[in-house]
Design a protein that fits this description.
557 residues; alpha/beta; Beta-Lactamase; Alpha-Beta Plaits; TIM Barrel; 3 domains; eight-stranded mixed β-barrel; five-stranded antiparallel beta sheet; 20 helices; 20 strands; binds ligand C2E; binds magnesium ion
């Protein structure tokens, strides 16, 4: 026996004598289990201790999913050279039928062969100490740890080791919101926790990972070839997909850096992975996208937009356009939606599709929203002051505003400031991910008297489930829903029924993105008499809107 081994055996003896371990056993990852302490927990004939725990229900149900990940990762490490797993797992476990579950700490030690594969393991299981139990309680609601020092430091360590090929993987759960809706947000939380715990197990010491935000996770890992990396992603996916029999899918975005050790880690890597992830969303055939340089343009724009936005608001470069809303049967204009345009001094007109998502991410949307609201209020005030019969204007209220600020207060303050009757201002809110707390806000808006429109209905995030409890007054049918579903007989039936069902439950309906007379006729036939879209008019500057409105009114006076 060489020196190292002797030391190890001595240490092992000390640990066994120590007595705080419930179980210590050695397993060859095939068929022999040897218990090292004085306690015997495995009956004769057990060849696989992990299956034994699982099959007998000795792992508390809350920990079964993560324990299974641990177990399969362990088996994987016996087949793959250099494969590693994290060695520590906290779990609630019992050792015989009649015992209670106890919170334990399981520690695994490897014995590797000369091909760097795991050949044997020694497992130590002991109850958590009081201190550990306390900590567990405190951290049981795990946190978003994006940007934590540990994460950033771990990434730089990879570079310091001289490793050049590094992949930044970002992934999220498709339509995570539906899981919350269907199973309750507790199950949603548990799923996120399961993913986080599983990543702790699957990812080795050189694979820092974190929960990036909401349901978005990030893994940074060295890679040899793209094929191997794809295998890694597939493995992650299959491990993370087994939770309580729920069906869900992931979207992965990957950014590859091939000269990592010589470049500074930057936010850009994560941004690129994120762009790739968003690109693959909605693709029915693939769910992994690699960042390539064509996507760089988007990034470029982002930094330009961020450089320019403050100046833009000070220089009044954001302009309110109005798009009229029509009554289909009479052709009369019944209102307008306020939509932002950015008239940039050198780049010309920038579309909201380019800057709204950036502002939503960096929080600037809050400033912009308030700015455009004020334009809309002022417009209504001008009409009233000039003796023109005012039409209601709807404004968009972003999620970020609702989340961070008191939108109810801000909008009611504007009503007072401009002395506008509340019927003349309508609010459009997109029903999308994380609707937590939204009900209460909508309730407050309604108490103030605002008309509430559910924007982009049918665009993918909304669901019938929402209609059950909604307090919205009006459904705004999304352009993509209209155009896609209009194409088939079946789709047309779905639109018709959506319209009649909404009316049955007392919701008004307006369709947006109406581009053809055929669409307008169809909608009217199906019972929807309001429309907004290019078929009638594009969004136009505020003065042009007045002209359109006067022309339109002439026909009705
Ligand atoms: P939205 O609120 O759903 O607005 C409707 C969008 O559909 C507008 O795009 C409008 O120009 C476009 N549209 C209307 N009719 C048609 C049509 O017949 N065909 C086609 N292809 N498109 C049509 P826009 O102005 O580019 O705005 C895009 C989105 O950006 C808006 O969607 C809204 O979510 C957001 N947005 C625009 N301005 C603001 C704002 O001031 N604040 C906030 N929070 N969001 C805004
Ligand atoms: Mg809108
Ligand atoms: Mg819309």
């Amino acid at each position: 026996m060489d020196n190292k081994n002797e030391m190890f055996c001595n240490m092992l003896e000390t640990v066994i004598d120590n007595g705080c371990y419930h179980s210590i056993f050695m397993w060859d990852c095939k068929e022999t289990v040897q218990e090292l302490g004085s306690r015997r927990i495995f009956p004769e004939g057990v060849t696989d201790p992990f299956s034994y725990f699982l099959d007998n229900g000795y792992i508390h149900p809350d920990f079964q999913a993560v324990f299974s990940v641990f177990y399969s990762q362990l088996l994987y490490s016996t087949k793959e050279e250099g494969a590693d797993i994290n060695k520590l797992l906290n779990l609630d476990i019992k050792f015989s039928e009649n015992e209670e579950f106890i919170s334990c700490n399981m520690f695994v030690c490897y014995i590797k062969n000369d091909r760097n594969r795991v050949e044997k393991i020694i497992v130590f299981i002991r109850p958590l100490t009081d201190n550990e139990r306390f900590e567990k309680k405190v951290v049981s609601r795990f946190n978003v740890d994006n940007g934590s020092e540990i994460f950033t430091e771990a990434i730089s360590e990879i570079g310091e080791l001289g490793i050049n090929r590094v992949a930044f993987i970002q992934f999220d759960i498709d339509r995570f919101k539906h899981i919350n809706e269907l199973y309750g947000s507790d199950v949603g939380d548990e799923l996120l926790k399961f993913i986080s715990d599983s990543l702790d197990i699957i990812c080795g010491p050189l694979q820092p990972h974190c929960r990036f935000s909401a349901d978005i996770f990030m893994i940074v890992t060295p890679y040899e070839t793209v094929e191997r990396l794809n295998e890694f992603i597939r493995r992650i996916e299959s491990h993370l997909s087994n939770f309580k029999g729920i069906d869900y899918y992931f979207s992965f975005g990957v950014y590859l850096e091939t000269e990592f050790s010589s470049c500074k880690p930057s936010r850009r890597f994560g941004d690129c992975a994120s762009i790739a992830r968003k690109r693959i969303k909605g693709n029915a055939l693939r769910n992994v996208e690699y960042f390539h340089n064509d996507m760089e343009r988007v990034l470029f724009k982002r930094s330009e937009i961020e450089d320019d936005m403050y100046k833009a608001i000070a220089n009044n470069e954001f302009v309110m356009y109005l798009q009229p809303k029509y009554c289909i049967s009479t052709g009369r204009i019944i209102g307008a939606e306020a939509l932002t345009r950015w008239i940039h001094p050198t780049k010309g007109m920038i579309s909201p599709a380019d800057f709204i998502p950036v502002f939503e991410q960096n929080g600037f949307i809050v400033k912009l929203d308030h700015y455009i609201w004020e334009c809309a209020f002022r417009k209504v005030r001008d009409w009233i002051d000039n003796g023109i019969k005012p039409l209601p204007i709807s404004v968009n209220v972003s999620r970020a505003y609702l989340r961070e600020f008191d939108a109810v207060n801000a909008l009611s303050t504007l009503l007072i400031k401009y002395e506008i009757p509340v019927e003349l201002i309508e609010l459009e809110i997109t029903e999308s991910i994380d609707s937590e707390g939204l009900d209460e806000i909508i309730h407050k808006f309604k108490e103030c008297g605002f008309t509430m429109l559910m924007d982009d209905f049918g665009s993918g995030y909304s669901s019938l489930n929402m209609l059950k409890k909604t307090q919205f007054d009006v459904l705004k049918i999304d352009r993509s829903f209209l155009s896609e579903f209009m194409e088939s007989d079946r789709g047309r039936k779905i639109i018709s029924h959506t319209i009649s069902m909404s009316q049955d439950i007392g919701l008004d309906i307006i369709a947006e993105g109406v581009e053809t007379g055929e669409q307008a006729n169809f909608l009217y036939g199906a019972g929807c008499d309001r429309a907004q879209g290019f078929y009638y008019s594009r969004p136009v500057p505020s003065d042009d809107f007045d002209k359109i409105m006067f022309d339109n009114l002439k026909n009705y006076s």
